[in-house]
Amino acid sequence: MSYFDNNATTPLHPSAREALLNASTENWANPSSPYRISAKVRASMQKCRESIASGLQTDPDQLIFTSGSTEANNSVFSHLSQNGDKSSRILLSPFEHPSVSEAAHYWFSGRVDFLNAQPDGTINTGELEAYLNKGPLPLLVSIMAASNESGVIQPWREAARLCQKFGVPYHCDSTQLPGKERLDDLSLCTYSVYSAHKFGGPKGIGWLVGEGASSLLVGGEQEKGRRGGTENYPAIKSAHRAWESMVQAPLDISGLSRLRDDFEDQMEQQIPGIRIIGKNSPRLWNTSLMIMPEFENLQWVGKLDKLGFQVSTGSACSSTRTGGSPIAQALALSLPETQRLIRISSFQDHTHSEWKGLRDAFAKAHLSLQKESLGSSVISL
């Protein structure tokens, strides 16, 4: 099996698995209880918080453990809606994950503005600056760091600096960055969010970095009153171990990019008519979002799966909804184009051999689909 859907979730790293099991076995006490074994858990949890915060160049008191990026994103919009002016508007990029765009519409109904999408899959910071100049200033600007669908990297650093210049809070959905790109300057953002399962950690744990966001959960004073509920210490410990193993370790970005770029070049020769979204834009080295020239994406996914290769049709959070792809909507793709989207997303340990195997599997799948479309009697894959 060759798994190429890492933007949806990554396999649990062996060191993270070991940490999860050890913490579940040896440190199972409730961190909020008053006895010594609980104090040991609290102290270890704080060390994890401080280590992660140090890597992000932020104050540990601003890092709150959550169930992941979706909760973190929602808590930002919930907090601002309850504490901001009821007439204030917010500004989003057109490429945001549903946990941002839908949260924005829920908490700021009728008060959400969007930047325009450029054909290369980015936003224009000149448009952002013009919006801020004309006033009134928005309560929040939200522009993701990198698209979970196309891998296109937005000019988030420039956006953060512009928002600082105008005194506007800036929220950055940074979920896809760890383990793929340098995290320098995320401290420029008012809010940034993280999900451990995107970089080799367990599902159901992540964190929000930022001052002032409030809990969606009431009835508990954990996390300094900012996130109710018993802390999931085993998952926190596991996430921290994955952070050390996959995020803080040196990474050969240029070498990993070449593997993806060579794959794309060969695919364009092998299946003429393929279009690659954001190909000429800055992208995460692991991601390729292709519009296939023929056959619906679920047909491709099914064929490739039987050949031992897992790919996706785009965002896992919108793959079951027709037209649910944020990037398809932002770039005004037609319904047939949207239904031919295929996303490839590797991770750090993928090899040249696996990329070659995926390319060969696409060739076999293409041949099979063509034969089926002609009513061939050849048995399908």
Describe this structure in words.
The chain is an alpha/beta fold and 381 residues long. Helix content is 40%, strand content 11%. The strands form three sheets. Strands 2-8-7-6-5-3-4 form a seven-stranded mixed sheet, with helices on both faces. Strands 9-10-12 form a three-stranded antiparallel sheet. Strands 1-11 form a two-stranded parallel sheet. β5, α6 and β6 form a beta-alpha-beta unit. α1 packs antiparallel against α7, α3 runs parallel beside α4 and α5 packs parallel to α6.
Task: Please give a handful of descriptors for the protein shown.
12 helices; three-stranded antiparallel β-sheet
Topology:
Elements: E1 2-3, H1 14-26, H2 36-55, E2 63-66, H3 69-83, E3 90-92, H4 98-107, E4 112-114, H5 125-134, E5 140-142, H6 156-166, E6 170-172, E7 191-195, E8 206-209, H7 233-247, H8 253-270, E9 275-276, E10 287-291, H9 297-306, E11 309-310, H10 326-330, H11 335-338, E12 341-345, H12 352-373
Parallel strand pairs: 1-11, 3-4, 3-5, 5-6, 6-7
Antiparallel strand pairs: 2-8, 7-8, 9-10, 10-12
Helix pairs in contact: 1-7, 2-7, 3-4, 5-6, 8-12, 9-12
Report strand %. 5-15%
Order of helices and strands: EHHEHEHEHEHEEEHHEEHEHHEH
**Derived structural class:** alpha/beta
| Radius of gyration based on Cα positions | 22 Å
Major sheet: arrangement of strands? 2-8-7-6-5-3-4
Number of helices: 12
Largest sheet: 7 strands, mixed
Give the rounded overall mean pLDDT: 92
How many β strands by DSSP?
12
Taking the alpha carbons of the first and last residues, their distance comes to: 16 Å
Low-confidence segments, given as residue ranges, are 318-323
Can you tell me the overall shape?
globular
Which percent bin holds the helix content?
40-55%
